[in-house]
């Protein structure tokens, strides 16, 4: 058996691949951008064959950087909730991937709410009814596939999230499976039994014959089929959603740990010893699951999670509006040209607001503009909007998790921004510890796979491999912090409006 782990991170905008050594060092990297398409307002989709092509190219790029990869196992982590359906016999998708940001299934979700089914679904699956989660997307795809429901019932079609699609292709179509973290984001998994929930399946109309097999995050899924530079017969030993993998890669194993992943959107997650029902807009989910030493049952760690729709996406939007060449660093440079946002508040509710608000009708707004406001103030307000949204979730998580949350572990692309990280520490009034690694999700997946095949012995050994962290301490007075946050809350309250309302001019 080899000694290194090949970790695949299939993300929303790109696919990364790493080879990770037993020391935790990254020996090689590959990366390929992934197209994302907006066919009409509120719709977001990807081409499944393009996604697999990018994944395959990233694997080849990574492996060609090494003379002898010496692989012990493969790990997969992935963008979550993005759903697709493909033909079991041919492996051909029946349509596009419906991306996690997409709102096309909102009318069906609204029907479920009107039928008062949300409390039941939350009690079983831990998730509020929202188009973000996979089940309504899968239903939409089947509805728009000729004879879709019958073909799914007959097992002719496979449904799944991106982890199942990547696994299917890596095994040459031999394995259709998903892990419990991805399954817990579908709104079809019973969190208490760790099985597909029959009543939830009936509500969404998803036939069980089309669903993937359920497995722990750290488990043997199958073996690779020969693929370019990737040899056949390598065990695929872990699958886990990207946000969960980031928490694992940060060694946030115990209650009281909390991490924020700053990506296109953002996810805050804290582990819990049991399912904790949220009353204030958080999701209950599976953090990760591993087979016991005897393999007799699955040991699951639960989590509370808050999903924010637009964080890095807000920076990207502003960069495009201002014509910036490289939005990430260029927005930070603009923000540093001013001392503060000058009273400007930006709420990036492009597709509504996620946790803890769950306001589908919310739309973005910029408040507090004066003649003196310019690009610098807008840039600063955009970065601050990320930190405010994180605080919205952090405060609720603090009250519901049952464990004190004293520091925030940060990772993801936008966490590279020092100005944002300092403002985050200020507005939370707690230290922020930022991972120095930009690849914490694939590292977390690699750690799980290595534990499964025996590269590492236990989680204590994993803790010694976690990359170093930068520390940001709060520096803002509590009065200033609360005044700024009050301005944010006032802006959020104004984001819901009726675009069809007609305002008549006053007559006098």
Essential attributes:
single chain, 508 residues, alpha+beta, Nucleotidyltransferase, domain 5, 16 helices, 33% helix, globular, disordered C terminus
Describe this structure in words.
The strands form seven sheets. The protein has a seven-stranded mixed beta sheet. The longest helix is centred in the C-terminal third of the chain and has 26 residues, at 375-400. It is an alpha+beta fold and 508 residues long. The chain has a domain at 4-250 and 440-457: Nucleotidyltransferase, domain 5, CATH 3.30.420. Helix 9 crosses helix 14 (440-453). It has helices at residues 48-63, 106-114, 118-125, 134-143, 148-153, 162-170, 180-183, 198-204, 242-249, 312-322, 327-335, 375-400, 418-428, 440-453, 459-463, 478-493, and strands spanning 4-10, 14-20, 26-33, 45-46, 71-78, 83-87, 97-98, 157-161, 177-179, 189-190, 195-196, 213-215, 218-223, 235-241, 259-262, 266-272, 283-291, 298-308, 345-347, 365-367, 408-411, 432-435, 469-472. Mean pLDDT is 91; it is low at 501-508. Helix content is 33%, strand content 23%. It has 16 helices and 23 strands. Strand 2 and strand 3 (26-33) form a beta hairpin. It is globular.
